[in-house]
Amino acid sequence: MFVMSVSSSVWLPYKFLFTFLYLSFWFCPQSTLQLSVSTLFLFFCTYSFLPHLNELNRSPQNQIPNYYQWDEAMMSKELKQVLVPGALIIGAGPSGLAVAACLKKRGVPSLILEKENCMASLWNLKTYDRLTLHLPKKFCELPYMKFPSEFPAYPTKQQFISYLEDYAKSFSIEPMFGQEVRWTEYDRSMRLWQVEAKESKFLCRWIIVATGENAEPVVPEIAGISNFGGRLLHTSIYKNGADFKGSKVLVVGCGNSGMEVSLDLCNSGAQVSLVVRDKLHVLPREIFGISTFALSMWLLKWFPVSLVDGLILLCSRLILGDTSQIGIKRPEFGPLHLKNATGKTPVLDVGAVAKIRSSEVKVVCGIRRFTAKGVEFVNGEVQEFDSVILATGYRSNVASWLKEGNFFSQKDGYPKNPFPNNWKGEDGAYSVGFTRRGLYGASIDAQRVAEDIARQWKSQMKHLPLDL
Q: What is the percent of the chain with per-residue pLDDT over 90, rounded to a whole number?
């Protein structure tokens, strides 16, 4: 509610006028003359007070905001409160859509807040054109809906986006877009979560964090980076290599994005150098026509991780050769062991290794500093580049807006408890999509969260009055 306050100096002359009006009307109600005089005084008071009203409207602290300007200064002080009877989900990516569908299947209402103006904003706005799913589609399906049979084993970016749009339509999921969450805190006196977004303060019994592991691009702090005079961009902005034909490009980062962007640039006619600073595992996406991931999951049913790692690395050497000969050294531990211990995902090769072997993509060491025209590497070599693309990944931003210190780590923005116990916090807080296991892990989270909330909803919420 907005309250106007007017100074006593403005009101003083009119107190006498309204007092006279009041007395003349009530003490002489039968007198036509008195009634006429009272009416005249009413018009006079209204007309003479208008300038002060205009002055009042110009006063920032008393201005009543326009309905279409909720995001201005006044709304930062006074927000509309909205009670959400079910769960409030932050993020309309695959994780948010999955848990909303699982809740709907169990009869629990939910509302999704999304800061961008579209679903799956990472896929829609921040991915390159050639991107496909890294795993077979059967491992990337969201609960209760398969991919269309005509889709290839590894759906393209646009095919995956269309799948998510159809998924939302199928479950009648309609997120509120343009609602960036500023802060979230649990009110113990009300036993409700308070979530402040752009226009409103939402109150809910359950909050589900589904903003994902890739909420914000990571831009490394490298000496002299601001002095580089060429083109500098993150892979979240890169779309394709058409604009880089014939230019010298340095790709910083050798994960899946760095490898694929290097391949795309090479195919577009750029001269590509790839920074490989640390040891990493590069595996073929398929082994003898079978998905490397699917084969690993099947072998783990029968054999220990160490043995499966050995078999996968043996097959990888037969297919890709010894990667140390091309400047990519492998860690001491196997890819599955590292994934379980650190969450670090191995690179699934889709053609970049062949480009490196043919010297079409040159592997270089880490960067010491940037120069005006290029970089100086840690081995002292200096090279000039027209463009630098940072394939340095993303990070979670949950710690910046979730005012709760027990569930999520302030250091990395992940739940403190590792998978599979990462999905539930205290006081009705949940997470989906922070398993470091991609879409497959998000689907597992969504089912667990929905089942837990549905159990509470059935036993408590159906008898709880929703009026505040």
A: 72
